Amino acid sequence: MSEFRETLYAGYAQALSVDEPIYQGNTGQQEVQVFRNRRFGRVLTLDGVVQTTEADEFVYHEMLAHVPILAHGAVRRVLVIGVGDGGILREIVRHAGIEDIVAVEIDPQVVELCRELLPNHSAGALDDPRLRLVYADGLEYLAQSRERFDLILCDSTDPGGPAASLFTDAFYRNCQQRLGASGILATQNGVPFLQPEELGGTARRLADSFADWGFFHAAVPTYIGGSMAFGWASNSEKVRRTDLETLRQRFTKSGLVTRYYTPEVHQAAFALPRYMLDLIEAGLQRDA
Ligand code: SAM
Q: Residue 174's pLDDT is what?
């Protein structure tokens, strides 16, 4: 039996047994591997980095989608950047009030491979009539778009490779311009314990572009190294402070059945441990 070894960080690695090899190839943009692991089910890796597994994807996708959607309360138009496996679309389409979804992906082959090999992730959401799938670079799409969104979700890979442009000043500035008055941007922002520069660097960029910004966090087992951070930014402070009673009412009304998200977890996720607050402070000062 072979083993997949992720060597994203110097001096620390994660290993998963490849109990059933399913696919290995190169899209021309990224190296893709799909295999089955006895503990995590089907696993997708891009450029040697674990992107998602069947067993723990619910944590990431529920938090990235439901936290901003329920905080906002009236999301109609959504832009998703980085479609990949389609797990984020599966969670978005569960909200009946959402009317329009634009999803921008740089690598069509990843989407088609995942549709076939990880069907439980998208669970039909790629065929939802509200979805418009666009194959383009996320930053380039934003730069030419004149549309307004209530929510922008950046479900990207890490900043190395094709996603580098999604962690730049230009990206956050463009997002700010495409959001309505109480619109929200939520992003995947890596594991701060092992990717400390990413948290501080994003904090500085968000602070430059948005009236209100912050981070929330959740532990996704195969994103090793502790809690991962999600970036949050809005033109309005109100949405981040949506009270617990309102979240409870919206959650009940939505009819969502979740495995990770609860309104209480939602609120608690914005309370950051001291080491993350210190990294944010250091980033703001470093780049000031
Ligand atoms: N949803 C997954 C999870 O559970 O964490 C992982 C993210 S998904 C695999 C990330 C996608 O972002 C990939 O399909 C990748 O091709 C895409 N991507 C990377 N850079 C991009 C860019 N600049 N514009 C649009 N999509 C991009």
A: 97
Q: Which residue intervals of the chain bear CATH 3.40.50.150?
A: 57-285
The first and second tokens of residue 192, run together, are 């701060």
Q: Rounded to 5 degrees, what are φ and ψ at 3?
A: -135, 140
The fourth-level CATH superfamily of domain 57-285 is: Vaccinia Virus protein VP39 (3.40.50.150)
The token pair that represents 251 in the structure block: 């959650």
Ligand 1, residues at Cβ distance < 6 Å: 46, 51-52, 57, 60, 81-82, 84-85, 87-88, 104-107, 110, 137-138, 155-157, 162-163, 165-166
Over the stretch 108-128, which tens digit does the pLDDT of each residue have?
999 999 999 999 999 999 999
Reported as a single tens digit per residue, the pLDDT across 30-85 is 999 999 999 999 999 999 999 999 999 999 999 999 999 999 999 999 999 999 99
Q: Return the residue whose CA atom lies nearest to atom 19 of ligand 1.
A: 163
Domain boundaries for CATH 2.30.140.10 within the chain: 2-53
Spatial contact of 186 and 230, defined as CB atoms under 8 Å apart = yes
